[in-house]
Design goal:
The chain has 192 residues and is of the alpha+beta class. It is 42% helix and 14% strand. The protein starts with a helix and ends in a 25-residue tail after the last strand. Bound molecules: flavin mononucleotide.
Length: 192
């Protein structure tokens, strides 16, 4: 693989919040979930699971519970963050949870070492795999995820870290540009 191709894939990946309802090919789903298990993980424990949710009723229940939790969060969040949300048009409504035809819930096993770091590395691998399929997603982190243990029969040692709605893009967003200034230093920290 040409190294420029990987950078190009990373530049193209943007957070997508608007989806068509076209279904996601099962081969794509298979490759995305395979990617989740190819990441490095603490002591190679793969301390996370992914639950695939295609059922529209289940997605509707997840949306309802997420919106309930996020309504409170948005009402009480830090004003600076609220301003950013307002500029982006983000509020407690999560239409993408029912619009995207597939939800991936990724949960960490809190009994395993390095569970959170490993879970997030795995999520990053999935984001790249999703992009490589010309699909989109949003790294959605509901303010409370405990309802997912109940809805998805997940034992209490699992903590859902993210819901990735996956689908075909209904909008086109500009590519990202690398922003290394103030983020990368030669030999020693030199201030932002
Ligand atoms: C840890 C993490 C949590 C995030 N949580 C949310 C979220 O709950 N809702 C949302 O709409 N976007 C969420 N995002 C997406 C970010 O807002 C987005 O990545 C950022 O604005 C940069 O945009 P880009 O992904 O298009 O480069 C999250 C991203 C990360 C990495």
């Amino acid at each position: 693989m040409n190294p420029e191709d990987l950078l190009e894939l990373m530049s193209r990946r943007r957070t997508l919040r608007n989806f068509t309802d076209k279904e996601v090919a099962s081969e794509s789903i298979d490759r995305i979930v395979q990617a989740s298990t190819l990441s490095p993980s603490g002591a190679d424990k793969l301390p996370f699971i992914t639950i695939k949710i295609l059922d529209p009723d289940a997605r509707a229940k997840i949306r309802k519970a997420s919106e309930k939790a996020d309504r409170e969060f948005h009402e009480n969040c830090d004003p600076k963050l609220k301003k950013w949300f307002d500029a982006k048009g983000i509020d407690h409504r999560k239409e993408f949870l029912t619009k995207a035809p597939l939800l991936l819930v990724i949960a960490g096993d809190t009994t395993k070492p390095y569970w959170r770091e490993s879970t997030w590395l795995s999520i990053a691998y999935m984001l790249m795999a999703i992009e490589s399929e010309d699909l989109g997603t949003v790294t959605y982190t509901p303010s409370d995820t405990s309802f997912l243990n109940q809805l998805l029969d997940m034992p209490q040692n699992f903590k859902a870290e993210v819901i990735l709605p996956v689908g075909h893009p209904a909008e086109t967003l500009p590519d990202k540009k690398a922003r290394v200034t103030g983020k990368v230093f030669d030999e020693k920290y030199a201030g932002e």
